[in-house]
Amino acid sequence: MKTVVVTGGTRGIGLEIVTRLVGDGYRVVAVGRRPSAGLDALLAAHADVLSFAAYDFDDLAGIHDFATRLAREHPGLYGLVNNAALGHAGLLPTLHERDIGALLRVNVEAPILLTKYLLRPMLIRGEGRIINISSVVAETGYKGLAVYGATKAALTGFTRSLAREVGKAGITVNAVAPGYLATDMTSGIADGQLDSIRRRSALGRLPEGSDVAAAVTYLLGEGARNVTGTTLTVDAGSTA
Ligand SMILES: NC(=O)c1ccc[n+]([C@@H]2O[C@H](COP(=O)([O-])OP(=O)(O)OC[C@H]3O[C@@H](n4cnc5c(N)ncnc54)[C@H](OP(=O)(O)O)[C@@H]3O)[C@@H](O)[C@H]2O)c1
User: Fold this and answer.
1) How far apart are CA 136 and CA 141, in angstroms?
2) Closest protein CA for atom 25 of ligand 1
3) Between the CA of residue 154 and those of 132, 143, 190, what are the distances in Å?
4) Phi, psi of 156 (to 5 degrees)
5) Rounded to the nearest 10 degrees, what angle do helices 110-125 and 63-73 cross at?
6) CA-to-CA distance for 25 and 65, rounded, in angstroms?
7) 13 lines ligand 1 (CB under 6 A)
8) Which of 1, 57, 63, 174 could bridge across to 113 with cysteines, CB 3.0–4.6 Å?
9) In 20-69, which ranges are E strands?
10) pLDDT of 136-182, one tens digit each?
């Protein structure tokens, strides 16, 4: 049974990814600051294959030790899904420096460091999958999301170069770019704005977390063994 670490696996898209991967026969480690009711219910039903590891990715200094513990407790780690992120929004002149710093730490530095340390067991085994959850905002831009958009663009750049670096070692690195979908992160977006995104999308709807989870399970699977360095957009055609 292959083990996959999913950061931000407690809520929203991450919880959908965890649910899907458990259903698809993976052993899953969900990481977040604290468990949620949704994750607790899943843990109760799948205690044999699902576990929770508490970590706050704002603490960059502790990531090495955390990753070492994960690798020790889950030898033969197969996949890492870097999904945890902050969505602080605000016009740049008014965005607090502390929010800018937190966005850069949690959305960029933490996944890079976690990947650096969890790559090691994958390199030794000559097999592994890294999936970074980016966003359509990395390419399209959105008023009030300049820093968030920068963090998501950083992840796609990271994805492409790392794919070149570790491909010969049998490891694929890809990104998934969801369009807007209803989660805690987007709860601040007015219904009118979401309606307008929905109306303008090619399919006339918003994607769902389960659609993002389907893209992740594809990239983890045998069918994607020759897919690396790419970004898979899941946005119901809003950027088509
Ligand atoms: N929703 C959208 O429309 C949308 C669109 C495009 C891309 N995305 C991307 O999709 C991913 C998931 O977004 P979402 O909408 O599901 O967000 P969400 O509902 O706000 O959930 C965020 C997840 O990240 C975890 N997290 C946040 N800060 C953390 C920290 N400091 N340390 C550890 N874990 C932390 C949270 O867990 P805890 O609270 O337990 O720490 C939670 O599980 C993100 O990468 C986001 O950028 C979302």
Assistant:
1) 8
2) 8
3) 10, 18, 27
4) -75, -35
5) 30
6) 28
7) yes
8) 63
9) 27-32, 50-54
10) 999 999 999 999 999 999 999 999 999 999 999 999 999 999 999 98
Phi, psi torsion values for 225, nearest 5 degrees: -65, -25
Whether 239 is in the pocket of ligand 1, judged by its Cβ within 6 Å, is no
Lookup: tokens for 208: 């769902």
Calculate Rg over the CA atoms of the chain. Answer: 17
Which protein residue has the closest C-alpha to ligand 1 atom 39?
33
pTM exceeds 0.85, yes or no: yes
Backbone angles phi, psi at 231, to 5 degrees: -120, 125
* Domain assignments of the chain as residue spans, ordered by start: 3-234
- Token pair 């992160």: residue: 185
Nearest Cα to Cα of residue 176 among 218, 220, 214, 231: 231
What are 87-130's pLDDT values in tens digits?
Answer: 999 999 999 999 999 999 999 999 999 999 999 999 999 999 99
| Residue of 106, 183, 233 best suited for mutating to test ligand 1, as the one with most atoms within 8 Å of CB | 183
| CA 231 / ligand 1 centre spacing (Å) | 18
> Is the C-beta atom of 228 inside 6 A of ligand 1?
no
Domain 3-234 is in which class?
alpha beta
Q: How far apart are CA 207 and CA 198, in angstroms?
A: 9
Contact 100, 24 (CB under 8 A): no
